[in-house]
Design brief:
The complex is a heterodimer. By secondary structure, chain A is mainly beta. Chain A contains 1 helix and 5 strands, in the order ββαβββ. The chains are: A mainly beta, B alpha/beta.
């Protein structure tokens, strides 16, 4: 059994070839104001569509929230 | 015709007094936090009433259920985003959060927050300094939220922070400025703007911060959790303007006893004496 990919704390079984752009499209109404880190490194917006996520990767997808 | 006299009012021209951070004219000396508001509508109303030009946002995992965009709301009002690293307990988390914010919001400005525990929310000076140094090296404009310790503030400036943001009291406490003397010391020694951050409870606290020489104040809870946030935002705007003007005007020295503002010269004396006892009147 392969390790799951962790996306925002949830273990996800992803199709092979899933990219960062795919993950963002599923979760965000707009990619504006969104940033992604894979394994603690920021993935620039310009490379989302060619960055595939692998089993075992830890993905963080963030945007603005109200805060002091 | 009315008998009520109308005093002549003239706007006195003062030299420009821009609030500059890292060579950028920020605009308003009142920075607003966006946390704690009940609706986007009341947040908008408070932002507008405050006159702010720079507002903080937190960086959090996306919530697919959220429909409104804070970025769009701020953009629509022409207010710049100052991302924060709220909720980070380590330099590592704060640095990654800042890098994510730079990517998400296309700004290299960051309000750096590294807290020690979730009861006091007090800054951890060791982690804060490490994160500040790293982010300055990465080209960020770093505005660190720090304690009111003048030594820590100086160390943050030495590693290249563009401002220092000492607390008046713990975040959300509304206790005002607990140690005005420390804030004055920080201001006196700082070569970068000092922004009073955290602890402000009401307008007089914001005014005092400016009177002590702070360049600006950052307010969140005192506005967003007020009964009428927009009205409090307007009060804070006025308080910051009044405090700044008073600072620039130069307050009088505190004295132990009275000093008369009216001369005693030529006052009447019912005993007919040519001269009174000397001195002066109030």
């Amino acid at each position: 059994m392969t390790a799951a990919t962790t996306v925002n704390g949830d273990a996800c079984a992803l199709d092979p070839g899933t990219t960062v752009a795919d993950l963002v499209a599923e979760r965000c109404p707009s990619p504006r104001g969104v940033a992604v880190a894979v394994n603690g490194e920021v993935v620039p917006h310009s490379t989302w569509s060619r960055t595939e996520v692998a089993p075992g990767d830890v993905v963080e997808i963030v945007s603005a929230a109200a805060g002091g | 015709m009315s008998d009520v006299a109308t005093p002549a009012t003239h706007e006195v021209a003062h030299p420009p007094d821009p609030f500059t951070v890292a060579g950028t004219d920020v605009g308003s000396r009142l920075l607003l936090g966006t946390g704690g508001m009940t609706s986007p509508e009341s947040l908008s109303a408070a932002l507008v009433a405050s006159g702010t030009t720079l507002a903080t946002v937190a960086v959090r995992r996306v919530d697919p259920a959220t429909r409104h965009s804070l970025v769009d709301l701020l953009d629509g009002l022409g207010i710049r985003i100052l991302p924060n690293t709220a909720g980070c307990f380590t330099a590592t988390d704060a640095v990654l959060t800042a890098r994510l914010a730079r990517e998400a919001f296309a700004t290299d400005w960051v309000k750096l927050e590294v807290i020690a525990d979730d009861r006091t929310l007090l800054p951890d000076p060791v982690e804060l300094l490490a994160a500040a140094e790293q982010l300055v090296d990465d080209g960020f404009v770093v505005l660190p939220y720090c304690g009111d310790d003048p030594v820590v503030a100086q160390r943050l400036e030495q590693v290249g922070c563009a401002a220092v943001m000492p607390l008046g009291a713990p975040i959300g406490s509304g206790l005002g400025i607990r140690n005005p003397h420390n804030i004055e010391l920080i201001v006196e020694r700082a070569g970068v703007p000092v922004v009073l951050d955290a602890g402000i409870g009401t307008a007089s606290d914001a005014c005092l911060a400016m009177e002590l020489g702070c360049s600006a104040v950052l307010i969140a809870s005192a506005v967003t959790r007020a009964e009428d946030p927009a009205r409090m935002a307007g009060a804070m705007r006025d308080a910051v303007a009044a405090g700044r003007a008073a600072r620039l005007a130069g307050r009088i020295t505190r004295r132990f006893v009275a000093e008369a503002s009216s001369s005693f010269e030529g006052r009447i004396d019912s005993s007919g004496a040519a001269d009174g006892r000397g001195g002066a009147g109030g």
